Amino acid sequence: MQTLLKTPIGRLRLIGYIEGLSLLVLLFFAVPLKYAAGDPSLSKIMGPLHGALFLLFIFNTLSVGVEQQWKFRQTTYKVMLACIIPFGTFYIDRKILSKI
After folding, report:
1. Does residue 35 lie within any of the structural domains?
2. Residue 78 domain-assigned?
3. Three-class SS of residue 60?
């Protein structure tokens, strides 16, 4: 993991991974806990956390795209689109970011 933090793309990949995990926790633990058990406490934590990670991923994608001189339609657009699609960050990491 330490090597991931040394490059901008590595940091972007790490943020994408964490953002994807936060969505998994939100969908499979926090929301069922809220509606099945009537306990919204985890949703109150994970909702804003996931939102912040989503925005961090978007801003970092734009930053890395400019820094690495990515062509917007070929790379930046696809990476940004991936975080809007549920679990797309995992897919885009494997298909694009791991190969750059």
Report:
1. yes
2. yes
3. helix
In a domain, 1, yes or no: no
- Residue 15 to residues 20, 34, 36, 88, 93: CA-CA distances in angstroms? 9, 26, 30, 13, 10
* Axis-axis angle for helices 77-84, 88-95 (nearest 10): 150
SS (H, E, C) 18-34: HHHHHHHHHHHHHHHHH
Q: Could you give the number of structural domains in the chain?
A: 1
Which pLDDT score is estimated for 66? 93
For residue range 48-70, what is the model confidence (pLDDT) as tens digits?
A: 999 999 999 999 999 999 999 98
Q: Which long-range contacts (CB under 8 A, 24 or more apart) does 21-29 make?
A: 22/46, 22/49, 22/50, 22/53, 23/50, 23/86, 23/87, 24/87, 26/50, 27/86
Q: Please check whether residue 50 lies inside any domain of the structure.
A: yes
Report yes or no: 83 and 27 within 8 Å, Cβ to Cβ.
Answer: no
